[in-house]
Structure of histidine kinase:
Amino acid sequence: MTYSLRGRLFIGLALLIVSTGLGAGLVGFRWAFDEAIETQDTILHQIGAIALNTRLPSDAPINAGVDAEARVFVEELGDRPSGSTDARSLWTLKDGLHIVSRDNQPWRILLRTRPDGSRFVIGQTTAIRDEIARDSAFHTILPFLALAPCLMLVIAIVVWQSLRPMIKLAGQLDARRSDDLGKLSLEGTPLELHPFIASINRLLERIHAMMEQQRRFVADAAHELRTPITAISLQAENLSQTELPPDSRDRLTALKSGARRTAHLLEQLLALARSDMDRMPEAPVTSLDRCAKEVVADFIATASDRGVDLGFEIIEPAAVKGEAAMLTSVIQNLLDNALRHTRQGGRVDIGVYREGAKVILQIDDTGPGIPPCDLERVFEPFVRGSRPTEEGTGLGLSIVKRIVERLNGSVTLENVPKSGLRATVSFPLVEQGS
Ligand SMILES: Nc1ncnc2c1ncn2[C@@H]1O[C@H](COP(=O)(O)OP(=O)(O)OP(=O)(O)O)[C@@H](O)[C@H]1O
Ligand SMILES: [Mg+2]
């Protein structure tokens, strides 16, 4: 079952606030209500004290300017029961505060007897007294009612802010390159997340060790196989110098090409393993244009054998961070592909130039290009696309991609209309002299 920690915290805290507020509000309301009623009784007593020595007219000045409903009435009962039934029934009550019914509504009254034996009654409808008390009690809880939404907002902000480091951490992990297994930093993270980060770091360490083991295994296996394959090639070469029947010579040719393909596979596997190797913390600054010139010089003979015009379209001095062997491997693989897919009479143009803070290596050919559905897939190991040439391992572009990404660059392939494939590699520029 999945649930949101944020939602839980917010709902929990909000419920706590609302229930505490409701409880406190109810108690506060009751208390303020009773206080207001008590105050009104005190007022009745004070008026009674005044009326004890003075006979107040029934429409006394105490009511001047007061709402008709809120008026306090004063009624003289005389010194013996007389007058209306209401007046007579009041005579039966003792001195003090009472609630009686008059004109079909409840009244709060105070009965007093003067020293001369005459009695009077002061009263007010309970409805108006309750209304006044409710109003004043409501005003006491009003600040809380206004504060509750503000408190909720503050809680929501605090909860959001407290859980933000977790989301930030997830973002940092997602933004990492797939081969970046470096430790997560504890800096700027809350203490509660430290055990979690430490666990992730231990896991990353284990994955790193496992990948390193696999890479070493591939490299060692490829390396060990290189010697016997070289020996087989050498023996096959020696054999081809001897006199052989045509049938055996055909088989020898097949053997030689098999050995050549296997040797190429081993070289590519070694290059792939090397591209995954832990880099030196500070890679040397290498001149990409010089590397490109050297690789082109090596390929000139192959290009002219194939009848392909190989040359530079633009070459500018450009320094990048990375070992020369790695950069050479990138150019070799891309150039090898371009030449292999370009027909006789075609062209392969190379460009090395600076563009803003980047160094661009561009290789254009006049071959058939790559079907759009294969453009991304060909970067995966052993994928040779839907139009592979007769020879190849499918590892060249994976080697290119891994090296380029390790050097913080990027590589893209695009089909240029009416031309062929364009491979563009971009590296961060290193200012010469820095
Ligand atoms: N310039 C190109 N023009 C057309 N297709 C290409 C080009 N470069 C690569 N490809 C396609 O991409 C596939 C993968 O290329 P990649 O370099 O990874 O492997 P490969 O060339 O088959 O083998 P290897 O490079 O190991 O000898 C190729 O088999 C080919 O189908
Ligand atoms: Mg290739």
